[in-house]
Description:
- It is a single chain.
- Helices cover 23% and strands 32% of the residues.
- It is built from five helices and twelve strands.
- Strands 1, 2, 3, 6, 7, 8 and 9 form a seven-stranded mixed β-sheet that branches. The chain has a three-stranded antiparallel β-sheet with strand order 10-11-12. A two-stranded antiparallel sheet has the order 4-5.
Amino acid sequence: xxxxxxxxxxxxxVLIAYSCANNEKWNNIHTVNVSAEVKAEKVEKExxxxxxxxxxxxxxxxxxxxxxxxxxxxxxxxxKINNLLIETFLNQKDExxxxxxxxxxxxxxxxxxxxxxxxxxxxxxxxxxxxxxKEGVINYTLVEDFYGGGAHPTMVTTILRFDANTGEKIxxxxxxxxxxxxxxxxxxxxxxxxxxxxxxxxxxxxxxxLEMESMFVSENFLLKKDSVSFxxxxxxxxxxxxxxxxxxxSYEELKDYIRK
Length: 260
């Protein structure tokens, strides 16, 4: 097959559906779902130099919730949150249209993977979901599930938090005190030991935890209704085989570390 022709078995499809997660309103903020998918089978491609390469089959999907800007009284807040989601996850600073941003993002990935002749196959799936958390907080979780060859796929979770009244992002040190990392790491380690029913740090090492990495206060954290959950991806504090780790505390347990 000459040039950069591809046998597409699925074209980009964008679906929009309105919802309000958990049937609740966050300061009258609702969500809108934007989805897109593109697939192609394995093909031969002729390079500029005349060589023929095998381009792998790929499957790319994006399925993300955005804030619904049709709610007039909160349109500015919704736009601010959406702009931050687009900038953070879709790598587009100036785009404000969610559908266009998803289209552009998936098109860029398609171009990248069409020029990859090394991977046996590629799939790259993005799923983003908004959840109501503690009062006035919207948690947003994006999961990328990727495989491009090698021993196993990779799954990476990124969590953001937003003030439902202003649309501002809530970062680690905007919620916790500047000095929290010094002593909170000890609490995280102890809670991990409690969760795994082991008595010592050496016992954690025996299970694969904290052998090559030190405990840290993860910026991937959820501000839930009754608790704070710190999320650690594969390789953050343990090898791939151990998987992801979540360590949770009640707000009462963390009261000395939370800004007043």
